[in-house]
Amino acid sequence: MIRRWYNSWGSTPHEVDAPLIDDDLVPDPMWVATHSIDIEAPPEDVWPWLLQIGHDRGGFYSYDWLERLFGFGTHNADDINPAWQDLQQGGSVLTMPLIGPPCKVARLDPPTTITLVLGTRFLDECRGIMDWCEAVSWVFLLKQSAPDRTRMNIRVRARWQGLIGWLAFRAGMEPAHAIMQTGMNRGLKKRVEAKRGALRSASRAVAG
Questions:
Q1: Residue ranges of the alpha helices (H) in the chain?
Q2: What's the distance, CA 175 to chain centroid?
Q3: Residue 74: is its pLDDT beyond 80?
Q4: Measuring CA to CA, how many Å separate 48 from each of 40, 86, 149?
Q5: What are phi and psi of 154, to 5 degrees?
Q6: Domains of the chain
Q7: Among 54, 153, 177, 192, which is disulfide-ready with 93 (CB 3.0 to 4.6 Å)?
Q8: What residues have CB less than 8 Å from 156, skipping those under 6 apart?
Q9: What's the predicted TM-score (pTM) here?
Q10: Strand 31-39's sheet: what is its strand order?
Q11: How many Å apart are CA 76 and CA 33, to the nearest integer?
Q12: pLDDT class of 96 with cuts at 50, 70, 90
């Protein structure tokens, strides 16, 4: 019951159970998490913030203090940086610099979908240092739910190998992801809506 709650923060029962794009990348997952949030802006206003995610880019908009506590040193941007808008399908996003290689961008469909993958099934770089990580997919899906509203669904699916994999995911990454993904969703929503509000205020000032 508790695991289902923190693995489905913000999502409706339908969103938790419904298939999502790229679910097939990790069939028969050992762990699935689906988090969702409403953002008061259209998908095209949310998209630039997603494009610049990454440890060495705009961060993940989550809890700076917690990331520093674990030694990641990630800085979360409060604005859109044109230099970080160059993400491409087949490119990479650095997520866990102390653990392994960057995730690969398996899908990039603007302005709706980013899919990141990690693990020995997808990346040769994981072999030898992350043999316990068989496959992980991390999907960000933006759907316009009203003229000025986006519903963002985020899904993680994972498979692991052996006791080390079980400990890494079930005892480590699963609860950590629940905390950090919740922080990311709230942080992204705050930044997008603040930026949109500032632009509206500036537009009214010019018109007045």
A1: 2-6, 13-17, 43-51, 64-69, 162-166, 174-207
A2: 15
A3: no
A4: 15, 10, 16
A5: -125, 130
A6: 2-207 (3.30.530.20)
A7: 54
A8: 31, 32, 33, 136, 137, 138, 139, 177, 181
A9: 0.92
A10: 31-39, 149-160, 133-146, 113-118, 103-109, 92-93
A11: 23
A12: confident
CA distances from 77 to 34, 192, 195 (A): 24, 12, 12
- What is the structure's pLDDT at 171? 87
Alpha helices in 25-111 (DSSP H): 43-51, 64-69
Longest Cα–Cα distance of the chain, Å, equals 65
Give the Å distances, CA to CA, from 100 to 36, 96, 120, 125, 128.
Answer: 27, 6, 11, 8, 10
Residue 27's Cβ-count burial label (10 Å; 0-12, 13-18, 19+) is: exposed
- Residue 119 token pair: 């693990």
Residue 205 CB burial class (10 angstroms; 0-12, 13-18, ≥19): exposed
Handedness of CA 151, 16, 60, 93 (dihedral sign): negative
> In the structure, how many helices (H) and strands (E) does the chain have?
6, 6
At residue 113, the pLDDT reads 98
Query: What is the amino acid identity at position 32?
Result: V
Hey, what are 79's tokens?
């604005």
Does the pLDDT at position 50 exceed 60? Answer: yes
The percentage of the chain sitting over the pLDDT mark of 70, rounded to a whole number, equals 90
* Mean pLDDT computed over every residue of the chain: 91
pLDDT higher than threshold 70 for residue 205? no
For the beta carbon of residue 194, count every other beta carbon within 10 angstroms: 12
Amino acid 88: pLDDT: 96
